[in-house]
Amino acid sequence: MCGLAGFYSGDPSENSERVIEVMTSSLFRRGPDESGVWLDAPEALVALGHRRLAILDLTKAGHQPMHSASGRYVLAFNGEIYNHLDLRAKLDGSNLYAVAWCGRSDTETLLACIEAWGFQQALEAITGMFAIAVWDREQQSLLLARDRLGEKPLYYGWQGNTFLFGSELKALKAHPAFDAEVDRGALSLFLRHNFIPAPYSIYQIYTNFQREPGWRLRLGIRRLSLSLTGSCRPRQRPAQPPLFRAMTQKPWKSLKKLC
């Protein structure tokens, strides 16, 4: 388990680095092995932070936020890419994109896929559980995404001129701009269900990024715009064996077959 946090600020300050450090530190329990922060200098409009629980690669080669080979993309990633070795082999066998691997982490594999194929196609190629934050320095856009089943959490929301996001609400609360009221509707949902279902959160302006697992969010900075679109196409469900198809339609007949 790892954790990520970050923000875009229309009014950057000299304290931006300290702010992202505090936000990231609030997620210590999610990643006790290492911490990292990055700001898009010199403007410092965007900041990314990451707490790391090292699993696949225990070396510094898996440090995050991680930069792509060209320097275009900066990634903070929480999760695991199950088919990352297959993706590495595919990239190595391609004549269009040569990769000089630095380590064995699936984070590096994911970042190489994004650089080689683009964000959309990379998301369609990977299999796993993930929450991703990517800053595209060339397009000046922030990209967020979650896995198809919604296993990894991700919250986001506006607070004035500041866009906040993170793996847990406590990371967002650590930002000095945070000043949200409790959503009474969400509170009633909690009392009814003993949890708050997506896409709601306990605060009015913050959204639990689970309205549709597999969707992505893009925040364009040049012309400030926010869009939420489908990103990961759901894998086709395998056909049910005849017995289970019959059980779905007429369970009493299927029980006779079982007996």
Describe this structure in words.
It is a single chain. With 259 residues, this protein is an alpha+beta fold. The protein has a single domain, classed as Aminohydrolase, N-terminal nucleophile (Ntn) domain (Glutamine Phosphoribosylpyrophosphate, subunit 1, domain 1), CATH 3.60.20. 27% of the residues lie in helices and 27% in strands. It has eight helices and twelve strands. The strands form two sheets. Strands 2-3-1-9-8-10 form a six-stranded antiparallel β-sheet. A six-stranded antiparallel β-sheet has the order 4-5-6-7-11-12, covered by helices on one side. α2 (84-92) crosses α3 (106-117), α3 crosses α4 (119-125) and α7 crosses α8 (251-258). The chain is globular.
What is shown here, in short?
The protein has helices at residues 16-25, 84-92, 106-117, 119-125, 169-173, 184-193, 242-249, 251-258; strands spanning 3-9, 34-39, 46-52, 66-67, 73-81, 128-136, 141-146, 155-159, 162-166, 206-208, 215-220, 225-230. It has 259 residues and is an alpha+beta fold.
